[in-house]
Amino acid sequence: MQHYLHELDVSADDSREILKGAAELKADRRPRTDLAGKHVALYFAKPSVRTRTSFTVGVRELGGDVVERLDCA
Predict the structure, then answer these.
(1) 65 strand-pairing partners
(2) Are 38 and 64 in contact (CB under 8 A)?
(3) Fewer Cβ atoms within 10 A, N terminus or C terminus of the chain?
(4) pLDDT tens digits, residue range 29-69?
(5) What is the pLDDT of residue 1?
(6) Does the predicted model carry a pTM greater than 0.70?
(7) Does a structural domain hold residue 2?
(8) CB-based contact 42:67 (threshold 8 Å)
(9) For the chain, how many structural domains are there in total?
């Protein structure tokens, strides 16, 4: 497993593979269980309804549950 903190952490070839995999998942919209029984923590430093909603829907479509933290201090 690799952690990416910045877009420069991903090579052009890796970016293409990630996008290819995403396109394959999008084309095959059957119910999935990749994250079944798992919780995904979403932490947002700035409020963004669109981003939060997109990530929440994505995690739930993969069978997971979301724990959110939104710091708007």
Answers:
(1) 39
(2) yes
(3) N
(4) 888 899 999 999 988 777 788 988 999 999 998 999 998 76
(5) 67
(6) no
(7) no
(8) yes
(9) 1
